[in-house]
Amino acid sequence: MIHIVKPRETLTSLSFDYRLPLSTLIAANPTIVNPNILYVGQPITIPNLRDPSEIPYRIEISITKRTLTLKNNEAVVKVYPIAVGKMLTATPQGEFVIVNREPNPGGPFGAMWLSLSKIHYGIHGTNDPSSIGKSVSLGCVRMHNKDVLELARIVPNGTAVSISL
After folding, report:
1. In a 3-state reduction of DSSP, which class is residue 18?
2. Is residue 140 among the annotated active site residues?
3. Is residue 124 among the annotated active site residues?
4. Which ranges does the record mark as transmembrane (predicted)?
């Protein structure tokens, strides 16, 4: 897939966000002369990740409604209730993709972890189902375990995730 560089992004920050070794990003982008200098709008190849435009699914998250909407070619497939970040640890807004997944990550992350292309953030299950519908997380999106497992069965890595108020 192609990532378009945003302000303050570096190859190092992108390697963290996409969970790739820096050397892998450098190798995938041979036209970069100086890996310490990127410019806003620069296209960066992210290897081994499907381009979101090739995937019919899209996830739209509403922080204020506390819903995750799964779409297939713009048709709503399902709307799930979620928990979001609290005031001091708000869920980040923006455009992301699912970069990888981990079943049964343990602890408060429930039955599945879907990593977003922003380090430390993901969509995951929970060991506290009473938190769904509330602003209680450290910024991640929490779902009921059965819901996150269903979502993970449907959407591949590379699926676009839009988070807005």
Report:
1. coil
2. yes
3. yes
4. none
